[in-house]
Amino acid sequence: MSFNVGNKEVHIQRKKAADSPFLQQLLGLGLALLLVLAVTSIIIATSGKSPLAAFQCMIKGAFGTKNSVAETLIKTVPLLLAGLGLTICYRTGLTSLGSEGQIIMGGLMATIVGVYMGGLPSPVLIPLCFIAGMIGGGLWAAIAGVLKARLGVSEIINTIMLNYVATYLVGYLIDGPLQEETGFYPQSDLLSQNAWLPSILQGTRLNIGIVVALVGAVVVYFLLWKLPLGYQMRAVGNNPIAARTNGIKVAKNMVMAMVLSGVFAGLAGAIEITGIHHRLMNGFSSSYGFDAMAVALLGGLHPAGVTVAALFFGALRTGANTMQRTLQVPVSLVNIIQGLVILFVLMQAILRNFTLKIFTRGKSKVKEA
To answer: Which of 129, 132, 267, 109 is nearest to 192 (CA)?
Structure first.
């Protein structure tokens, strides 16, 4: 189409729509996972084991029986909840490394409620434990959020230090004020059975935590893409200067994002205590908070992707034990896989461009022919 503007003729030509950003991201993630499998296979082969047999054992260990599926889903729950919290945080432009400490604080608060308010009925006590866990995680994350928003202190350093503080604080409490009455081990008393999460699969440890986590994924999707608060957070993450120019309160949204991130991590800690361990002890968080960073990145900072990534990492954790028992392949291989996932996902933009160039060249050759 063309028209005249003054003495000049202006031509408007409709350009072909660009490739879908989702498809581009999917290509990058796909190539990243292929590279992870390739490098992992080489490592397994150098140890004298069959990579194919190792992966088969891992899949069978994660999904081969009813109990293994249940264990995979159990490990998926904290990864998913903490990953969802980090998705909110990263979408707002913050780099939080504090999910581990927030999970620990959520577990601590849930333990206090479950032990000292154990006379309440389950329909009241379980939600109270969840709420206490969310408050504990949210307030712990708020410390780093306020320091970042008000004083400009790096949230990376803050959240790392808060992880250590939370770990040693719980260590002190379970070896002192919160130690079990018998005083034999550094752990709290058992929670009241009214605070234990009901099982949803007979004969396994799978509990309603998986339902809560899936609901959480839906909530995060609506928060980030359907509500004004989510739009403001994403705007701050994309360009804080432009967001501030358009009247969005950048500092407020940063604190809110950090608090919400802690709320989800704290809920993960509460579910671990009320659904699995039933008491507070050292190491109950099992480094879920650190793995959640890889889950959020692998999931493309989208609730649907984070859900799939959490299931993938949960399967890795469960299947690794079977792989070790069957083939004597060290469980530490899972840590290698997780590290490779983070490395290649961070290289996703380069891998995506590389893949698109290959496809573009292929299309051009077909046209020439």
So the answer is: 129
**3-state helix/strand/coil string of the chain:** CEEEECCEEEECCCCCCCCCHHHHHHHHHHHHHHHHHHHHHHHHHHCCCCHHHHHHHHHHHHHCCHHHHHHHHHHHHHHHHHHHHHHHHHHCCCCCCCHHHHHHHHHHHHHHHHHHCCCCCHHHHHHHHHHHHHHHHHHHHHHHHHHHHHHCCCHHHHHHHHHHHHHHHHHHHHCCCCCCCCCCCCECCCCCHHHCCCECCCCCCCECHHHHHHHHHHHHHHHHHHCHHHHHHHHHHHCHHHHHHCCCCHHHHHHHHHHHHHHHHHHHHHHHHHHHHCCCECCCCCCHHHHHHHHHHHCCCCHHHHHHHHHHHHHHHHHHHHHHHHHCCCCCHHHHHHHHHHHHHHCHHHHHHHHHHHHHHHHHHHHHC
Low-confidence ranges of the chain (pLDDT < 50): 5, 10, 14-19
Task: List the structure tokens of 14.
Answer: 């409709």
Q: Which two tokens stand for residue 88?
A: 């909110």
| Token pair in block for residue 244 | 């501030």
Amino acid occupying residue 144 = A
> And the tokens for 335?
């840590």
Among 71, 72, 78, smallest CA distance to 102 is for 78
Q: Which tokens hold the place of 61? A: 């260990």
Question: What confidence tens digit (pLDDT) does each residue in 250-285 have?
Answer: 999 999 999 999 999 999 999 999 999 999 999 999
Within 8 A by CB and 6+ apart from 18, the residues are none
pLDDT in tens, 193-250: 999 999 998 889 999 999 999 999 999 999 999 999 999 999 999 999 999 998 999 9
